[in-house]
Predict the structure.
Amino acid sequence: MKDLLVDLKSGDKITVQVGNVIIGGEEKIFISGPCSVEDYDSMLTMAKELKNVGVNILRGGAFKPRTSPYDFQGLQFEGLEILKKVSEKVGIPIVTEIMDTRHIDKSIDLIDMIQVGSRNMYNYSLLKEIGKTKKPVLLKRGMSATLSEWLYAAEYIMAEGNENVVLCERGIRTFENYTRNTLDLNAVAVIKNKYRLPIIVDPSHGTGLREIVPTMSLAAIATGADGLMIESHISPDNSVSDARETITIKSMEHIIKRIKSRKLY
Ligand code: PEP
Ligand code: MN
């Protein structure tokens, strides 16, 4: 079998540049923001506050993959326009999920990094089309994907010429249902040991419980993760989606301070 681009024997460790942020380098990077983009004013307030506490990249879903078709599906292109305006005003890069190949052309200039969500990790046409762009990609792990299936998904993007791929461990489905998912930190250790791609951890979807997000954030960094993606909100209980796992901006600030001062326990 041909060597894979993701393997360390195929080349050096990859670093991915998003705006002026380098993922996979010396510095740990922090991505945060609400689960969904809700409106311009709240997004602007959150972006300013998050940037102030040291968040490097702003997140917010415009296209939302919801379990029920009757739940809020996101503001879609209006959401992308909001993200773009906020990004320019505050001076912070944006990552957001694109779910459909038909949306790539219209979205590409509005965002700095494309998120491929857990439900789309196996969408090979989407992966190939994203691979034809040079945009940085945040590739979330499928909720029941093995490590090698996830790495092959990354390979699909890279084989098309786009090596700007960052993996995101977001928990897998197991028999355990106290937590929303089971955060697989083994995956982080394996990727850092044997593969070229940077990897960040999403303890929000990985746990589903805001009270353990700080602890699992520190654990992820101790395991070697290059950064974190955490859902936060100015008023977490009023988030339109994933309120239960969403933390305050103050709590985000604590997590960043602990990690920067290397107080991991
Ligand atoms: C998200 O990050 O908002 C999201 C939908 O995550 P996932 O694809 O991991 O479920
Ligand atoms: Mn969410």
